[in-house]
Amino acid sequence: MEKISVILAVINLLIIIGPIANMVLIHVDNPVEVIIPLELQRLNETMGSLGETLQTIELINISYFSETHTLNLFFSIINKLNIDLKVNNIEADVVCFEHGYPLGHAYLSSPVILEPNVRSYLVVTFQLTENAEQHIREQHAEKDKIDINLLNFTVDIEGIVIQSNQTITLRGIPFASRGG
Amino acid sequence: MRAINWFGIVGGIVAVILIALSLHTPWWQLIIGDVFLKVNVSPFSHNLSFLGIAFMIPLILALNLSSSLILLIGGIILITYSLNPSKAYSKRLLCFAYKKPLYAVISFLIGIIALHIILSLVFNINIPINGTVLVNISDPTRGAIVRVPITTSLNWPFWLAVITAALCVAARIYHKKLIA
């Protein structure tokens, strides 16, 4: 009877110690890896690269389509990570720089996959609301171009949403055919 | 007619099946963002994925292997006991085996609750055991707010483990009736 108890206790002990001892032996050159694998050790580096990626966002072109009253903002971004990144959305509230009047809401037309270390392009679109058109007709009748502010500029990467509190000013937006 | 501990047979079989099922479906899952960080955990397996890069922690892998072997042997011993519950050595087999699923459930819950407390105390992040929460992290130096959706789910293999533990405890209680 005692024999069975001893055998079961030994089995228990071997099962617990065996795999742990094996893991320690496998990682004998770098014992820290037993608790913190290389991937976790590189996490800081990866987070840093993600921050660098966000800093590469650059507005490169603006175009306005008078027929559809649509403004396209072309951004470029370089993915500094060695893996694909998905940008789900970029959005912002658009207001008149001079009067603070709300002109519409800009958003990314469709999600974009950023390939590693390649410059990718994102098109952020916004359509003037009827009230916004009226505001431009009435308040900016003498100008071909107006300045706008982007408020609540938000980037959604892989479901993590980063919202900037800073106002981004875009100058000389060509709302040329506002008079229709 | 030979006495059989049916609770023990069912409990032992389900315990062995539980190991296989837990490799496929985690007991608990944590997802940050879309799949920015994904953590799948059970006492018998775990895997982490950061932006699609999958990795495991060797120490936890060793503990997973130990847990799997302990429950596998526990399940087999419980079935062996259940077919011959009146033998002289049977009670020792039962006492060795019936606690194993219960230990798995308790140690798993301790781990999840400890993680919850650590995140709450150290990082001031309250993650639910089962549910979704939106964590706002303010970065005043960069004038930004980072919104991080965290989703956790306690999956059905956990509840199956609770049932298995209950069956094994029932087997221990039924044993007294059998030998009376």
Explain this structure to me?
The complex is a heterodimer of chains A (180) and B (180). Chain A has 180 residues and is of the alpha+beta class. Chain A folds into 2 domains: 2-41, no CATH class; 48-173, Immunoglobulins (Immunoglobulin-like, Sandwich). Chain A has helices at residues 2-26, 38-41, 43-55, 130-139, and strands spanning 58-65, 70-78, 85-96, 102-108, 112-114, 119-127, 146-157, 160-164, 168-173. In chain A, strands 1, 2, 3, 4, 5, 6, 7, 8 and 9 form a 9-stranded antiparallel β-sheet that branches. The longest helix of chain A has 25 residues, at 2-26. Chain A starts with a helix and ends in a 7-residue tail after the last strand. The mean pLDDT of chain A is 87. In chain B, helix 1 (6-24) runs antiparallel to helix 5, helix 3 runs antiparallel to helix 5 (156-179) and helix 4 (100-122) packs antiparallel against helix 5. Chain B has a single domain (6-179), classed as Butyryl-CoA Dehydrogenase, subunit A, domain 3. Chain B is α+β, with helices and mostly antiparallel strands. Chain B contains 5 helices and 6 strands. Helix content of chain B is 56%, strand content 22%. Chain B has a 6-stranded antiparallel β-sheet. The A-B interface holds A 1, 4-5, 8, 11-12, 15-16, 18-20, 22-23, 26-27, 33-40, 43, 46, 81, 83-86, 88, 158-166 and B 32-36, 48, 50-53, 55-59, 61-63, 65-66, 69-70, 73, 77, 88-89, 92-93, 96, 142-149. Strand 8 of chain A pairs antiparallel with strand 6 of chain B.
